Amino acid sequence: MSSKTVVPLSLATVALAALSLAGCGSQGGGSRDQVRAVGSSTVYPFAKAVAEQLAKSDPSIKSPIIESTGTGAGMKLFCAGVGPQHPDIEDASRRMKKSEFEECQKNGVKEIVEIQVGLDGVAFAEGSKGPGIALTPEDVYKALAKNPYGKPNAAKTWKDVNPALPDEPILVYGPPSTSGTRDALKELILGKGCDANPEMKALKESDKDKHEAICGEVREDGAYVDAGENDNLIVQKIEANPKAIGIFGFSYLEENSDKLKGLTMSGITPTYQTISDFTYPGARPLYIYVKKAHLKAIPGLQGYVTEWSKAWGKGGLLAKLGMVVAPDDVIAKSTKAVADLPVLDGNELK
Q: Are 250 and 151 members of one domain?
């Protein structure tokens, strides 16, 4: 048994040394021979498609391993350290938080490259036979918040939330707390709905932590069902129950347009156009984060990052899969980031 444990330790030591050399600009090979990416379930299908495209275009490169862990859980794995036992890339359906950046720095993940790969929307949908409920951020907040405006949530039906809505039980299948989609739901929808109340808006200035708890915590009494990181499962659940609503990335809505219909948010339907021009309230950017120290040590990592830039344009691979193409200025900035690999300094993060 002892001989089996010594070998990986020795390999890890060699690889860590190689990664250290790579970070200093020297050539070096790690003990892992394929790229590993973790993170967002929303970005997952796109990251996987880019990995498959890379393997086709260069058979000498092993197809990268892509894991759907959720953005938050992926950040923990990504920021845990440098070396072959840690991922090379974090796929994220929101921007890295300042606290995550600081965790990375603390664990020696000093050089991080941030690249925006496209856009997405936090879509609300129901089965094709659903009643066609029209929502606003305020409706969603009152329906899903644990303590709307500081009081326990007693709403049982959508009509309890807003008399204009159907007298149907609130049943929403959505992402877990580890998901970037959940973070986007909190920031883009629940937060806006909460801050429609002047007292809550004032609370944001006077007590940020209390504001975040009141505005961002989701109820746990069965009205909101945490469906895990598998967005396809949410699709299946709402397809099977016409009275249920699902929350997931826009690409899943587009991919299943024969089974689902998108719900309007403040009168705006989630579409390619409304997300790309940010008129849809739930529009958000998608990112990948790359460990610069791994670029020379992990075979195929540079090629994989470059492959993204070949796939994200208008009419490109990612657009065909349902990703919303970023505006031209963002694409130009992202393409430059792939070429120059600028290091994120953390000052712009929240």
A: yes
